[in-house]
Design goal:
The structure holds two protein chains of two kinds. Chain A is mostly beta strands. Chain A is built from no helices and nine strands. In chain A, a hairpin with a 2-residue loop joins β5 and β6. Chain B is an all-beta fold. Chain B starts with a strand and ends with a strand. Classes of the chains: A mainly beta, B mainly beta. Chains A and B meet through β7 and β8 of A and β10 of B.
Chain lengths: 110, 122
């Protein structure tokens, strides 16, 4: 059980906007950067968002990250079939003195 | 462009030591801007950070694995390595190496290797 809590699943239809939440505490999200990764089936994870809300070059602006207090969210607008993947949040945890990943959210595009 | 490639045995016996190497190509492991990390993913499960190393040899590990993990770097070969001792079936996973930014206490893993499956079984 991770200290970063994500819903196990999410879904949406093409063109829709979906959000994936990542709930933590003052020792992780509340005081450190949040990162988001996308893992397409059978592939290595890919960095989507760094430092809470920054997109690496090449990541479409349909993906956005936000943080408020001890929670973070990944929003995907204009949902596409190729967005169907697992999404993971990550952050440093001061209490554990280690990096932690959320349990992951499987996004299904209906 | 920078690429990372994991290598090592795909099968390890229980109680033995798992050893993997990550070879960095298309760039230098001695960059001051990055750490180099190991992350694993058991079949059907989520990601777990194992530990990271700087080119100078400075390391930091997941506290839950720290007693069994050693990460080292060989700048002359542009490689870094993972050793995990006393393995059990719970250590069966895909092991990824990745480049990690130095920003914050836990930087972004921005370039990943393709991953290598390691099975612990007699």
């Amino acid at each position: 059980q991770s200290v970063l809590t994500q819903p196990p699943s999410a879904s949406g239809t093409p063109g829709q906007r979906v959000t994936i939440s990542c709930s933590g505490s003052s020792s992780n999200i509340g005081s450190n950067y949040v990162y988001w990764y996308q893992q397409l089936p059978g592939t290595a994870p890919k960095l989507l968002i760094y430092r809470n809300n920054q997109r690496p070059s090449g990541v479409p602006d349909r993906f956005s990250g936000s943080k408020s207090g001890t929670s973070a969210s990944l929003a995907i607008s204009g949902l596409r079939s190729e967005d169907e993947a697992d999404y993971y949040c990550a952050a440093w945890d001061d209490s554990l003195s280690g990096g932690v990943f959320g349990g992951g959210t499987k996004l299904t595009v209906l | 462009q920078l690429q990372l490639q994991e290598s090592g045995p795909g099968l390890v016996k229980p109680s033995e030591t798992l050893s993997l190497t990550c070879t960095v190509s298309g760039g230098s492991i001695s960059s001051s801007s990055y750490y180099w990390g190991w992350i694993r993913q058991p079949p059907g499960k989520g990601l777990e950070w194992i530990g990271s190393i700087y080119y100078s040899g400075s390391t930091y590990y997941n506290p839950s694995l720290k007693s069994r993990v050693t990460i080292s770097v060989d700048t002359s070969k542009n490689q870094f390595s993972l050793k995990l001792s006393s393995v059990t079936a719970a250590d069966t996973a895909v092991y990824y190496c990745a480049r990690q930014g130095v920003a914050g206490l836990f930087g972004a893993f921005d370039i990943w290797g393709q991953g290598t499956m390691v099975t612990v079984s007699s």
